[in-house]
Amino acid sequence: IRDCSIITDMSSSVSMTIDNVLSSSFCESGVATTINVVVSLLCVNGISKGVFEVLPEKFKNLPIYDYGDALIFPGMIDMHVHAPQFAFRGTSMDLELMDWLNRYTFPEEEKYEDLKYAKKAYDMFVKALKESATTRSVIFATRHRYATELLMELMEASGLISYVGKVNMDREASDNLTEKNADVSAYTTFGWINAVKDKFTRTKPILTPRFIPCCTDKLMEELREIQMAYGIPVQSHLSESKGEIDFVKFLRPKNSFYGDSYNEYDLFGKNDDIGVDVKTVMAHCVWSTDEEVELMHKNGVFVAHCPASNMNLTSGIAPIRKYLDLGLNVGLGSDVAGGHSLSIFRAITDAIQVSKMYFRMVNENYKPLVFSESFYLATKGGGEFFGKVGSFEDGYDFDAIVLNDNVLSHPQTLNLAERMERAVYLGLDEKNLTAKFVAGTKVL
Asked: Which residue in 141, 103, 97 sits closest to 245, CA to CA?
């Protein structure tokens, strides 16, 4: 987008006026079509009012922010990230999942009992997230109540929008990391939710059983009671690696498949049989069976696709084309520190690349993702978990990032689609993020 201007006032009314823009409308993924016209992208009170060739008269007196020759994208959505793991990202990426958890993840997370350490580490995480292209995220903390509340305070102050979960786990980790028993885990979770549920505007709690190997049957039963009492969303991990799946089969032999272990406790999306509607996101879903996929689709479970993590930890390649063809809800996750970068731009490109490998090496019936589809997953696909988010269409929350791509020299003339793709592949989110808006508020 060339010669763009962003209009804002103190009431968080925002508009963008674009001269010589290569766009007059946005397709479903938020990617612009290529037409040489002057258009305006308008936001009022934090809500996008759409794209106009002629700015409506009643909005023409809004003040203007002028960013010159810049690109404006919808904000990126990180559907799965571990805040305490940010401290050791990029470490021992040659290990597989279960070994990596036991040797690095669990020992690091033990440290968050110490609030001074938690403050130091979480300050770094929140600062990096704020300076990234991510505007909304779904976050794992640790099992420590007060460190989780601290993280939520920092996220609220950042201006970003997030769900943050205090992790529940009462087995299969060190004594310093697991909670004493299911009752203690449930008690501290009740206390945490009561303390934070009405405290923040932009930061909300999400129920977080770490994954089935770390949660006893009794704990899962108590988490069901908590979810039904408060009606909050759920996040966890699902079918990430073959070793993990085998372990779940050993622990819960009566369940037909991994996801059934969550569904038994009504923590796996909506359950029409009992009238419970539980907004749920499951990370990975690399090895989900047809039965599991069918249940995810029926229950409206979101898949957080984390391609970097799946490569780093030798988990496999999730069949995202299959999921999209079947109509599943899919977004992208960085999965730091299984993934080594907070960049959702990197996740966009990784998702395309691993889909090509799946097509060539696993099943040629599932065509690789194209750029616009992967961009959609990073914006509107994951954004649906938050509501009407991830697009500049009329009525959507106004999340936007402004990028200066003038640093990318090129001898040829590029259209908008080409500029967008280059900006993502060449990592401009980590180098040239000019401004950032979340629900109409300028946070950078």
From this structure: 97
The pair of structure tokens assigned to 150 is 């601290």
Using alpha carbons, list the distances in angstroms from residue 398 to 49, 52, 69, 212.
Answer: 9, 15, 21, 37
Full pLDDT tens readout for the chain, 444 residues: 223 334 333 333 344 433 333 222 233 333 333 333 456 778 888 999 888 877 788 887 876 777 777 888 999 999 999 999 999 898 888 888 888 888 888 999 999 999 999 999 999 999 999 999 999 999 999 999 999 999 999 999 999 999 999 999 999 988 889 999 999 999 999 999 999 999 999 999 999 999 999 999 999 999 999 999 999 999 999 999 999 999 999 999 999 999 999 999 999 998 776 777 899 999 999 999 999 999 999 999 999 999 999 999 999 999 999 999 999 999 999 999 999 999 999 999 999 999 999 999 999 999 999 999 999 999 999 999 999 999 999 999 999 999 999 888 899 999 989 999 999 999 999 888 999 999 999 999
**H or E element that contains 153:** helix 145-158
Rounded to whole angstroms, how far apart are CA atoms 213 and 129? 29
| C-alpha angle 152-156-159 in degrees, rounded to nearest 5 | 145
Helix 344-361, helix 416-425: angle, nearest 10: 90
Closest CA to 211 of 256, 167, 165: 167
Identity of residue 214: C
Measured between alpha carbons, how far is 348 from 425 in angstroms, rounded to an integer? 8
Cα–Cα distance, 281 to 302 (Å, whole number): 4
**Long-range own/partner contacts, residues 255-262 (CB < 8 A, 24 or more apart):** 256/291, 257/288, 257/289, 257/291, 257/292, 258/212, 258/288, 258/292, 259/288, 259/292, 259/295, 259/296, 259/301, 260/291, 260/292, 260/295, 261/212, 261/220, 262/209, 262/212, 262/220, 262/234, 262/236, 262/238
Q: Which helix (H) or strand (E) holds 162?
A: strand 161-165
Taking a C-beta distance cutoff of 8 angstroms, is the pair 1, 414 a contact?
A: no
Q: Are 214 and 170 in contact (CB under 8 A)?
A: yes
Distance CA 289, CA 267 (A): 18
Q: Rounded distance, CA 123 to CA 101, Å?
A: 23
Q: What angle do CA 402, 405, 408 make, to 5 degrees?
A: 160
Give the number of C-alpha atoms closer than 13 A to the C-alpha of residue 164, restricted to the C-beta side: 32
Sheet holding 234-238, edge to edge: 234-238, 280-284, 302-305, 329-332
Note whether 209 and 168 are within 8 A (CB). Answer: yes
Tokens, residue 401: 């990032």
108, 69 contact by CB (below 8 A) = no
